[in-house]
Amino acid sequence: SNHFDEEHDVIVVGSGAGGMTAALCAKAEGLSSLVLEKDLLFGGTSAVSGGGIWIPCNDDIPRVGGSDTYEEALTYLKRLIGNEVPQANIEAYLKNAPEMVRHLGKTFDVKFRSVPKYPDYYADLPGGKPGFRSMEPVEFDASKLGDEFDVQRPSFRGTQLFGRIAMNQVEAHTLFSRGAGWIRLMLGMLLRYWFDFAWRRRTHRDRRQTLGQALTGSLREAMMRKDVPLYLGTGMTGLIHENGRVVGVEATQRGETLRLRARRGVVLACGGFESNPEMREQYLPKPTNVAWTAVPPINHGDGIRAGQALGAGLRHMDQVWGSPTVNKPGAAQQITLFVERGMPGCVAVNRKGQRFVNEAATYPDFLKAMYADDAKGNGTVPCWLIFDATFRFKYPMGIFLPGQIEPDAKLPKDWLDRVYYRADSLDALAQKIGVDASNLASTVSKLNGFAKTGVDTEFGKGNSPIDRYYSDRNVKPNPCLGPIEKAPFYAVRLDAGEIGTKGGLVTDERARVLRNDGSVIDGLYAVGNTAAAVMGPTYAGAGSTLGPAMTFGYVAAKDIARAT
Ligand code: FAD
User: Fold this and answer.
1) Are 123 and 363 in contact (CB under 8 A)?
2) How many angstroms from the chain centroid is the CA of residue 262?
3) Is residue 346 part of a domain?
4) Can you name the residues that pair with 165 across neighbouring β-strands?
5) How many domains does the chain fold into?
6) Which residues contact 305 (CB under 8 A, 6 or more apart)?
7) Pairing of strands 6-13, 256-268
């Protein structure tokens, strides 16, 4: 039928950072836009994320003492991506990314700053940079959201100081690496939070938003100011098309079916397929498990399926934005290990008790190493991270804060030897977790030797700038290497998780969805994890998922405004 309940110029499906950016930018082009969100909370994975965006040549770089050029950024990306992604898409990203950030700042007061010390993930490659390209959201005052604050997806407690106090990237880096003044910084943050009496009466969530909370908070507040509506609890169930052109969206809202006409275009920004067990089985490397993801249980591949139903091509469906994750009982999703593996005094082993990776490798590379070693029959999915009492005391470990703040005695009793394992000797620990004890003993003694010399001759832990980003700079000679020697010894199981799936609808440099034969599906755009990643097989630097999601949201809006 051609009956529609409502009409808008642009309908955006999904309220993550990519979707909200697309809707705002469409509005700035003079179009009416609407965001549909299936969940009762807005913000998606973007809200629980680090909020980092990787933006080569961003305007902030000169201010913080860096330099960058288009050619360097292109050289770097081409080296990492090869021919896995059309050059036109890569160039569209590089060209539009700094423009997108400038536009959000000027037009909507959604602001970012460069993080000078956050290195590219392969900073030593040609065109790589020792910092500057990763940007973080500027802190945002949650009270500006009014009642919308209550429907923002809250962040995980683990990304906050003492589970409560928001930290930005720079603060987190100083605290985790025990940089100059870290104690003073921590006390200052505690006091600021503590003295915010009025706000604390309302909620334990910090008024001062950082990371993904600041990102989604500031985007949502801009939508409110610019009159861009958001329908919560409204899930897209399919696309409406006429003569090969997408003209609207079918959605369910409180059990009712809605037909919404999109006069100019539909932007699919409804995430990947992390929580869809069938799609995981069909596309991802095995073994895989829906329980291992670090993404909240919200994305089921709806956008990918809807595009596929219209003949869209798919790409990179076997790839993820990978990360090892740990299980915390009762949590809706697992916890990623970004920080802890780089610290000195831990070792990752397979079932044979052997190392298989530089523990400080980037999270996606760590995950690739797990699957590569598992394929050799070594029992590496899952694997184990082993550390000693000194490590436990000083550093966080996914499910717990450093022992000096959260000792074992404060943890739930039934976690012991179920969520984390502890024993008085490495031998007894190996028995508990079913790992080869004699190999483990020699692995650890080799590592203890590396700690003395400062050189990991096996996997080079601590050699690259990104290894040392999260490390203990007070430890010498190598801030990523320390002995495992003081009882009791600990083990935590690492699962093969992800912070998002990477494969999705094939799009062109204008974010338009393409059929298998390369033809354009008129009126249909895809961004974020609904689209096949512009990064292809790689992860160039912190913010390589959100940077493109938002950039192509901006690109899609401009293209819709231009098209007739
Ligand atoms: P999402 O942000 O997940 O948004 C999709 C939205 O669509 C959701 O709200 C969902 O409910 C909604 N939806 C789904 N189906 C439908 C439907 N049928 N109808 C309507 N709505 C629907 N990436 C970075 O680049 N930088 C970081 O610093 C970073 N840190 C991270 C930290 C953590 C702990 C995690 C878990 C991830 C992190 N990531 C980071 C990854 C990043 O968060 C995701 O890749 C990104 O948020 C994906 O954005 P998206 O817009 O595609 O999806």
Assistant:
1) no
2) 30
3) yes
4) 161
5) 1
6) none
7) parallel
Instruction: Specify if 477 maps to a domain.
Output: yes
Residue type, 149: F
Distance, CA of 251 to CA of 237 (rounded, Å): 5
Regarding the beta carbon of 52 and ligand 1, being less than 6 Å apart is answered yes
Q: What is the CATH number of the domain that holds 478?
A: 3.90.700.10
The rounded Å distance from CA 219 to ligand 1 centre is 14
pLDDT in tens, the chain (564 residues): 579 999 999 999 999 999 999 999 999 999 999 999 999 999 999 999 999 999 999 999 999 999 999 999 999 999 999 999 999 999 999 999 999 999 999 999 999 999 999 999 999 999 999 999 999 999 999 999 999 999 999 988 767 787 788 888 888 888 888 788 888 888 888 888 888 888 888 888 889 999 999 999 999 999 999 999 999 999 999 999 999 999 999 999 999 999 999 999 999 999 999 999 999 999 999 999 999 999 999 999 999 999 999 999 999 999 999 999 999 998 889 999 999 999 999 999 999 999 999 999 999 999 999 999 999 999 999 999 999 999 999 999 999 889 988 999 999 999 999 999 999 999 999 999 999 999 999 999 999 999 999 999 999 999 999 999 999 999 999 999 999 999 999 999 999 999 999 999 999 999 999 999 999 999 999 999 999 999 999 999 999 999 999 999 999 999 999 986
Cβ–ligand 1 contact at 496 (below 6 Å): no
Q: Note whether residue 331 is domain-resident.
A: yes
Please state, in angstroms and rounded to a whole number, the distance separating the CA atoms of residues 120 and 105.
24
Which range of residues forms the domain containing residue 342? 323-498
Is residue 557 included in any domain, yes or no?
A: no
Q: Look up residue 331 and give its amino acid.
A: A
**What are the structure tokens assigned to 3, written together?**
């009956």
Residue 223 identity: M
Assess whether the C-beta atom of 336 lies below 6 angstroms from ligand 1. yes
Instruction: Return the structure tokens found at 20.
Output: 């909200």
Closest C-alpha residue for ligand 1 atom 15: 270
Centroid of ligand 1 to alpha carbon of 342 (angstroms): 25
